[in-house]
# Entry
Amino acid sequence: MKSIKLWAGILGIVIAVYILLISCYEAAWNVLTMSGHINGVIGIIIAGLLMAGSIVRIGMRKAEDDSGSIISLVLFAVASAIAFALTPIYRYMQTWAIVCLVMGIISVLMIMWKNSRIGQ
# Structure
């Protein structure tokens, strides 16, 4: 279970860095062209939440309780909700929302797996 949390956390950080690079480019482009779009800033927020959740997942992987998985679940859920809310405006954010949702599902599965192992 610890190795799954580690690899999922590393994958989340890599994806967050990718989203952050794209969003910084978009934010700079929106400022330079004065387009008035907010997709770059929202992408930076989503990348920050995804990175924070992944770092918590890695840092708390050896914890005895489920606090790390719960915190990362909340961070991934907030990022997913923001991305799904902006999907009608910016269609590509649906992909980021699904990535955050999958990370949240992994957190839920880790909680359920740990609780099922305690009961045995």
Residues 2-118 form one domain. The two ends are 16 Å apart (CA to CA). The chain has a mean pLDDT of 89. The helical segments are 2-33, 39-59, 67-85, 93-118.
